[in-house]
Amino acid sequence: MISLGLLVIVAAASAADVNNIEQLQAAKNSQLITLRNINVPAGVTLNLDKLKPGTVVEFAGEITFGYKEWEGPLIIVGGKNIKVVGKPGNLINCQGERWWDQKGGNGGKKKPKFFAARLTDSSIDGLNIKNIPAHGFSINSCKNLAISRINLNVAEGHTKGGHNTDGFDVGNSEKISIINSFIHNQDDCLAINSGTDIKFEGNTCIGGHGISIGSVGGRKNNIVQNVRVVRSKVIDSDNGIRIKTVKGATGAVKDITFDDIELKNIAKRGIVIQGNYLNKRPEGDPTGGVPITGLTINNVRGNVLKGGANVYVWVANASNWKWNGIKVAGGQKVMEQKGLPQGCKW
User: The domain 1-187: what is its CATH number?
Assistant: First the structure.
C-alpha cells in the first residue's frame, strides 16, 4: 500500500495542469505541463524558458492575452529536449487586431512579438495561432529544432491593419526544419538572416512577402548556408522566392536550394535575387561583400500578375548557380538585370 501511494504521488508530481499564470512557475518542476484555457495578463510573458530537459508542454483549449503596448514576447519556450505539442482544438488567440494600425514595427502602437524559441534538440508541433500583433516565431540561437503542422492564420490582417506579421524569423541557428505548415500573413513567410542546415518543406504561404533568405549582412552572424526550400506554395503574395543581401556588408550566402515551388498570383516579383539592400530597401548598384554562391533553383513555376516581373536579378560576385525548369510567367514589367552568373538562364 505504501509503495502504491508513493507511485501516485510521483505520478501527480510529474504532471501539471495549468489554468492560470500563477501556477506556471511551480509547474516547471513537472515533466508534463498542460496549458489549458489561460488568459495571460497584459504585459506578461507566458514564460516557459529554462524548462527541465525532457519536458513536454501541451497547449489545450484557448490561450488569450491581455492588452498592453509592450515589446513582448507573448510566449517564450526554452530548454533542451523539449516537446511542445498542440492538442486537438487548441487555439492561441493573440487578438492582434487590438494593436494593428498598418505600421507594424515601424511606428504607431508598440506591438509585442509572438513566440521566442530558445530550444535545442526539441520540437514544436500542431499549434493553431490566430492574429499575432507582429512578428511570429523568433527562432534565435536554436539547434536541432523540428517545427511541424503550424497553422498561423493572420488573414484578418489584410483588412484590419496587420503589418510585419512575419511567420518564421531564423537567426544564428542550425539544423532547423519547418514542415507541413500553413502561414497566412502580411510579411515574410520565412526569413533566414543567418544560420546553417535549414529545411523548409511542404508549407503553404499566403498573402505575405514570400519566402526569403535575408536580409543578410550587418549582424554578428552573416552566414546563411545549406538551406533547402522544397515542395511549397506561395500564393497571393508580393514576392515568390527571394534572396536579399545588404549593400556594403560582408558575409556569405551559399548552398541554397529552391525546388518544386508553386507560385500563384504574385504581385511584384516571382523570383528576386538582389545584393543592394540598404536601410530596409534596395538602393543603387549591388555590392559583392555577401557573395551568393551555389544557388540551385529547380522546378519553380506559376504566375505573376501583369504589373510585376517574373524574375529579377541584381547582384555582384555571384557564382555556381544552377537553374532548371523555371516556368514563371505573366509578369509584364521589364527590369534591368545585373550580375547573373554565366550559363545561368531561365
Answer: 2.160.20.10
The rounded radius of gyration (Å) of the Cα atoms in the chain is 21
Q: Which of 117, 167, 116, 125 is nearest to 143 (CA)?
A: 117
Give tens-digit pLDDT for 253-311.
Answer: 999 999 999 999 999 999 999 999 987 778 899 999 999 999 999 999 999 999 999 99
CATH architecture of 208-346: 3 Solenoid (2.160)
Residue 22's nearest CA partner among 40, 42, 43 is 40
Cell digits of residue 294: 551555389
From the list 230, 160, 170, 235, the residue with the least C-alpha distance to 196 is: 170
Active site residue 163: no
CA distance 328 to 302: 5
Catalytic option among 135, 163, 184, 209: 209
| 143-160: burial string, b at 16+ Cβ within 10 Å, e else | bbbbbbbbbbbbeebeee
* pLDDT tier for residue 13 given thresholds of 50, 70 and 90: low
For 67-89, what is each residue's pLDDT tens digit? 999 999 999 999 999 999 999 99
pLDDT for the residue numbered 208? 98
Report strand pairing: 269-278 vs 281-282: antiparallel
Question: Range(s) for CATH 2.160.20.10 in the chain?
Answer: 1-187, 208-346
